[in-house]
């Protein structure tokens, strides 16, 4: 089903990590609008609701008003100015988060055409760990993995060997 190409490698690893920790009887609130991975979760039998596109830096009402037992945030936190506030408003005790890791050989991502598609944070793993700890979560499991590339050049070679993604399962203490 999956190839070793982007985003398929990321989706395969994320799906396996999700299935390892979250039973299909849980109700998931996936931060961000419906996306290819939220569709995969639904196809795999998970009950998934997405946020509606509201700016989570200002409006955390969905986090308070929806019914859910797990939050997923796959490549969302790097777009937020204040992920701390979002984590404080999560009412479930379980969360799965993935983030792109800060790369020493590349600047923060910023789309040239879409003013919303940019990374305010490019985390190092310890920064996400600390953020979760400060908001009352304990990390149960974590993995890092590389970003597949089919390009030739110095950066693509570095990306082949350098972990790009950090995926965490945490529970509220």
Write the layout of secondary structure elements.
Blueprint: H1 8-21, E1 27-30, H2 36-43, E2 47-50, H3 61-65, E3 70-74, H4 83-89, E4 94-100, H5 125-134, E5 137-146, H6 154-161, E6 163-172
What is the helix/strand order?
HEHEHEHEHEHE
State the name of the first-level CATH class.
Answer: Alpha Beta
Question: What is the strand arrangement across the widest sheet?
Answer: 2-1-3-4-6-5
User: Termini separation (Å)?
Assistant: 37 Å
Low-confidence regions: none
Care to describe what's here?
This protein has 173 residues and is α/β, with parallel strands linked by helices. Strand 1 (27-30), helix 2 and strand 2 form a beta-alpha-beta unit. The protein is 30% helix and 23% strand. The protein is built from 6 helices and 6 strands. Strands 2-1-3-4-6-5 form a 6-stranded mixed beta sheet, sandwiched between helices. The protein has helices at residues 8-21, 36-43, 61-65, 83-89, 125-134, 154-161; strands at residues 27-30, 47-50, 70-74, 94-100, 137-146, 163-172. It has one domain (8-172): Rossmann fold. Pfam families: Methyltransf_23. This is Methyltransferase. InterPro entries: SAM-dependent_MTases_sf.
